[in-house]
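Small ribosomal subunit protein bS16c structure dump, as promised
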Amino acid sequence: MVKLRLKRCGRKQRAIYRIVAIDVRSRREGKDLRKVGFYDPMKNKTYLNVPLILYFLEKGAQPTGTVQNLLNKAEVFKELPPNQPNQMKFN
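structure tokens r here:
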């Protein structure tokens, strides 16, 4: 199973997170399948590769809680087709 998860990067006390598609059995800093964006909590900036994220969501990838919140803020779930069986529109 594939998840959209945060992967920690950056220096001590200056964390930056990559949003990656990764196998569930991998550890946090393990090898990822694809990088789909990044999140900088210090500057509150987010970059998302929306077409790639939608591709993984349509194939059944599950976002973690934090990634889910970031995608909700960016309104990514509104771009999913309405007849998607695994819609995750939690408000």
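The CA atoms of residues 2 and 17 lie 18 Å apart.
lmk if u need the other ones
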